[in-house]
Amino acid sequence: MIYLRLFLEFLKVGLFTFGGAYGSIPIIRETVLGNGWMSDDLFTYILGVSESTPGPIMVNTATYVGNTVGGFWGAVCATLGVITPSFVIILLIAAFLRKYMEKKPVRAVLDGVKPCIVGIILVTGVHLFFTCLFPASVNYKFSLDPRALILILALGALRVGFQTWKKKTVSPILTILVAAGLGVAVYGI
Known about the structure:
- It contains 7 helices and no strands.
- With 189 residues, it is mainly α.
- It folds into 2 domains: 2-143, no CATH class; 145-189, no CATH class.
- The longest helix is centred in the middle third of the chain and has 41 residues, at 57-97.
């Protein structure tokens, strides 16, 4: 039954993700592609939509994947699966483990995990960058997507220009809005 499978697969994602939503992307990708639920291109598209909509990326992605695979109830099952571990862990921490969080061994483990999370996020970003810039064709021959190159250069110029002109970083909301506008202009609706 697809609903139980969606719940269990996203329960695993929620259980084994550490370091936030961006750390979950490779695990979700592996789950989705490994089960044959969608293509890498469709997953990348869903990930982009998940990042640009309000809410946690991991929950949004699970909801969109669940909806694509199993409709409304698939979305419910995938979402419940991905949030259940965090919900239970937060309850346990609040109830029992609060006094242990500042102990040296616990802090050492958490501090040791941080560089791993940075590496996972970096690899995910590089993968998404190259997937968008060099999409695979049916025969797995890679070619440069000039529209993606235009978007990357325009967003890079926006960031550099804004930092030079205003002497501060670009708002993520502004970046999302400009990227969405450019995406519609370059790719169409």
